[in-house]
TrEMBL record:
One Gene Ontology molecular-function label: DNA binding
InterPro entries: Cro/C1-type_HTH (IPR001387), Lambda_DNA-bd_dom_sf (IPR010982)
Domain (HTH cro/C1-type): residue spans on this chain: 50-104
PROSITE patterns for the chain: HTH_CROC1
Upper taxonomic lineage: Bacteria, Bacillati, Bacillota, Clostridia, Christensenellales
Protein name, entry field: Helix-turn-helix domain-containing protein
Pfam families: HTH_3
Length: 145
């Protein structure tokens, strides 16, 4: 079964479409969102994004391995699309980079299609942080914590 990136992103499709400073046309962005993925594509996209974000953050494999308590060779296999991470490992990785799994897939697809994703990664992180701030503010306004 194949899914479009926009289906994987779900709610975050709107976040991505509204992100500022992506430096890409809406048409190109829609093309990335309409890319169809199978299970292998998702694994490869996640790995491509992981490697790119680690390099953007200037983290070595050893540093990342220590930070998230996943062995260096295991991370390397994820980055190269050889193995798929387990759910607990995905949770550690996405928490470290502060973007949801779905955005890893989106960024990985863009990276695999030759896009320099540094600005995208930063814009997506900012968009997620802003959405989280808005959600917290709404809950406070409603008297919920």
């Amino acid at each position: 079964m194949k899914l479009k990136v926009s289906e994987v992103l779900g709610f975050y499709t709107a976040v991505v479409m509204n992100a500022q400073n992506l430096g890409v046309s809406k048409t190109d962005l829609e093309n990335y969102l309409n890319t169809e993925l199978d299970e292998t594509d998702v694994i490869k996209a996640f790995g491509a994004a992981l490697k790119a974000m680690r390099e953007i953050e200037k983290e070595s494999l050893n540093t990342l391995s220590k930070e998230i308590d996943i062995p260096n060779p295991t991370i390397n296999r994820y980055e190269n699309g050889i193995n798929a991470p387990t759910i607990p490992q995905i949770v550690k990785i996405v928490a470290h980079f502060k973007i949801p799994f779905e955005m890893f897939v989106f960024l990985g697809v863009a990276k695999m299609q030759g896009q320099d994703i540094e600005a995208w990664y930063r814009a997506c992180r900012a968009a997620v942080e802003n959405a989280q701030k808005q959600s917290r503010a709404q809950r406070r306004a409603q008297g919920k914590h």
